[in-house]
Design a protein that fits this description.
about 250 residues, mainly alpha, 8 helices, about 85% helix, elongated
């Protein structure tokens, strides 16, 4: 005789189905976010390497020009303020370029890598944790997953997955009541994380960097290299600024 399933068992089945759907959605969104962040970081590095260093050089020259002009008129407080601001801007540009170029280059993401990341996110996401200890464990694993994904290291991702699958800490007990409570809480956590990711994706898509990336990508489709065009434009400004600085230096020396 077939036993009639208890209401809580039926509810658990429904919640587990809902949870499975949310896990798929979350894995997709985590992958989308990680890919976008990686893409923008790579573009930012490329942009700063091509033109950021030139902007930094231009800012340094313009700071020297402002300082020369301020030295000529010590009583001119407005000119002194301009010199201070120019030097501050030059320092900030230098620091920003150095920090960005210090970050490791992001490797291209293969389809295999993307699938591995998605699989790892479905298994190890911290929002699937049962308690604080479990969350801490998962956060450690996901940090390694994100690092491997950022570096484009498929083998490292596979190693983390194998380690997770064979870890005794990931074996959990069963029980309808406990499973139902855990599932309901996981659903709430996943919905919260999905909302956070959507917010972060919107912020990234609306950022100046993302819009610049889209602009450069569109130009590339039309056969234009905006990075090269911009670099050449800045070179012209640098040349003009250098000539002006040379004239000021020569004038001060005479």
């Amino acid at each position: 005789m077939v036993r009639t399933r208890l209401p809580e068992e039926q509810e658990l089945d429904a919640k587990l189905a809902e949870l499975a759907l949310l896990q798929d959605q979350l894995a997709d969104k985590e992958l989308e976010l990680a890919t976008l962040e990686s893409t923008l970081q790579s573009f930012n590095r490329q942009y700063l390497k091509a033109v950021g260093t030139k902007y930094a050089e231009l800012d340094r020259i313009e700071a020297e020009i402002a300082e020369h002009l301020a030295a000529r008129n010590p009583a001119d407080k407005e000119q002194a303020q301009k010199a201070t601001e120019a030097r501050r801007k030059a320092s900030e540009t230098d620091a920003a370029v150095e920090d960005a170029l210090r970050l490791p280059a992001q490797a291209p993401k293969s389809e295999r890598l993307r699938k591995l990341y998605r699989e790892a996110a479905k298994k190890m996401h911290p929002d699937y944790a049962d308690d604080a200890a479990d969350r801490k464990l998962r956060e450690g694993y996901m940090a390694r997953v994100n690092e491997a994904y950022g570096q484009g290291d498929e083998q490292a991702l596979r190693d983390v997955l194998d380690e997770w699958d064979n870890s005794p800490e990931t074996v959990k007990g069963q029980g309808v009541q406990a499973d139902l409570v855990r599932t309901i809480r996981r659903i709430a956590q996943l919905r919260k994380r999905l909302a956070e990711i959507e917010t972060r994706l919107s912020e990234l898509m609306e950022s100046e960097l993302s819009q610049l990336y889209a602009k450069f990508g569109q130009a590339e489709k039309g056969g234009r290299d905006l990075l090269q065009e911009l670099a050449e434009s800045i070179d012209g400004k640098i040349k003009y600024a250098q000539e002006r600085l040379q004239r000021l230096t020569a004038s001060d020396a005479s």
